[in-house]
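Lab channel / #folding
Pinned by the channel admin:
"Please post every new chain as: sequence first, then the structure tokens as a reply. Keep commentary short and put observations after the output so the thread stays searchable."

First post following the new format, from NK:
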Amino acid sequence: MILTDYYLRRKINSLAKNAPKRDHRYCTIEQAGDILISYSIEDKEVVHRYMEKLRVLGKNVSGCIYIPKNKIHKPDSTCLQVKEGNDTNLLMLPRAELMIKFTELPADILIDLSRPTDHIIHYMVLYHPAKLKVGRKMEGVSLYDISLIENEEDTVEKLSEDILFYLQTIRSK
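Reply from TO:
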């Protein structure tokens, strides 16, 4: 697994330098209609509360949940599920049909709340055509239009609240 993590980090770093072209557009939370949130199953409860908060603001919110091989999760039709092993090839990259489903999810803003070790999600985020991508600053790679630097002890709940704060205060034309 360590070798696979190393390989995936290197692959993501090299791909980020030549990321697919997309129409970048900064927008406030008020301007966004569709929001996609990627996250890990360990943070499901916190993220679902965050998704509800965004729905109260009138946003269409969809999710993409990463499920490690050792976790059991009952099917959830509200989120695209990425199950390690089932939805990945031998190199631990997402299967083509999963990538198509993911890139077709509508998103004016993609909020990545996944953990630093969720390399499969980071790979997928790199290819999503969302106009604005927001997430946690990662060492050695820039996947997002807005990257937040978080302390190691900061929780996903704090990260999500910080992202919401910044998206509410952005001024765009």
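NK: The CA atoms of residues 87 and 98 lie 7 Å apart.
TO: also worth noting, The radius of gyration is 15 Å.
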